[in-house]
Amino acid sequence: MIAGQPWPVVAFLVAVAFIAGLARGFSGFGSALIFIPLASAAVGPSLAVPVLLVIDGIGAAPMLPAAWQHADRRSVLIMSLGAMVAVPAGTLALAWIDPTALRWGISAAILALVALLASGCRYTGALRPSVTAGVGMVSGFLTGSAGIGGAPAIAYWLGSIAAAERVRANMVLFLAGSDLYAAVAYTMTGLFNWNVLVLSLATGPAYMASTMAGGRMFGLASPQTFRRICFALIALAALLGLPVVRHAVIGLPKAGLETPAKPTEPDAPPRR
C-alpha cells in the first residue's frame, strides 16, 4: 500500500501520469484532460487534482525559461487576468445551473470550435487586448464550471497566425500562472496532505521524464502536426466533458460529478 492505495492503483497512476506528461511536454497543455478523469476514477478527485498540481508544477518548470523567451507575455498576462476574474462565475454556474445541461452545452460549443479551426479558418488580425481578455474570461468560466479552461485559450492562439512555438510558449506560461493560483486555493482549503505528497513522489518521476520526452517530440514535429494534435486534445476535452461519457466510461460517481469541488482544476484543470 502506498498512501492508502494498493500497488496496482499506484502503477495505473504512474502510467497515466507518463501519458499526460507526453501531452504536456509536446503541446504545452493537455495533461489535465488525460490525468484528471482517469486518476479521479481510481483515487477520487480530491487526490487526483492536487497530485497533478504538484507534479505539473515541478515537471513543467524546465519549460518556463524557453516559454518566457518565446511567448507573447503581454497577451498571456491579459488572458490570465481575465481567467482569474471569471473563475468564481464559473463556479457559481456549476452550483446553480443544471450540471448535465451545462456540460452538454459546453462540450457542443468546443466541438464546434474544433471543427471550425480544423477547417482552416484563421483569425489573421491583431490579437486585441479586449478579445484576449474575453477569451481569458471564457477560459476562467470553463475552469470553474467544467474544468476544461485550457481549451479556449489554446484554440484562440491556434486560430491566429502565430507560430507553433509561440502558441506552445503562451500555453506554458498561462498554465504556470494557473498552477500558482490553484496552489493558493488548495493551501487555503487544506487539500494538500501527506497522501498527496506520497502519490506525487510516486508519479512525479514518470511525469517529469515524459514531459521532457514530449518537449523533444515538439522539436521534431511540423507545425501542421502540432496543430492537429492540439485539435485532438481539445476534442478530447469536449468528449470527456460529455455527461454520458463521464458516467458510462470514466466511471466517476454521479454525485462527485454534479457537486462542485472547492478548488478548480489546475488547466484547469487539469488545467491543460
Describe it for me?
Helix 3 crosses helix 9, helix 4 crosses helix 9 and helix 5 packs parallel to helix 7. The chain is globular, with a radius of gyration of 17 Å. The chain is an all-alpha fold. The chain has one domain. It has 13 helices and no strands. The C terminus is likely disordered.
Topology (SSEs and partners):
Elements: H1 7-27, H2 31-43, H3 45-59, H4 64-70, H5 73-96, H6 99-118, H7 129-146, H8 150-158, H9 164-189, H10 194-220, H11 223-241, H12 243-250, H13 254-258
Q: Which features characterize this protein?
A:
disordered C terminus; single chain; mainly alpha; 13 helices; 272 residues; globular
Tally of DSSP helical segments: 13
Taking all Cα atoms into account, the compactness measure Rg is: 17 Å
- Nearest-integer average pLDDT: 78
Count of domains: 1
What is the succession of H and E elements?
Answer: HHHHHHHHHHHHH
Helix vs. strand class: mainly alpha
Shape: globular
What amount of the residues lies in strands? under 5%
Terminal CA distance:
29 Å
Helix-residue proportion: over 70%
Biggest beta sheet attributes: none
What low-confidence regions span 5 or more consecutive residues with pLDDT below 50?
A: 249-271
According to DSSP, the number of beta strands is: 0
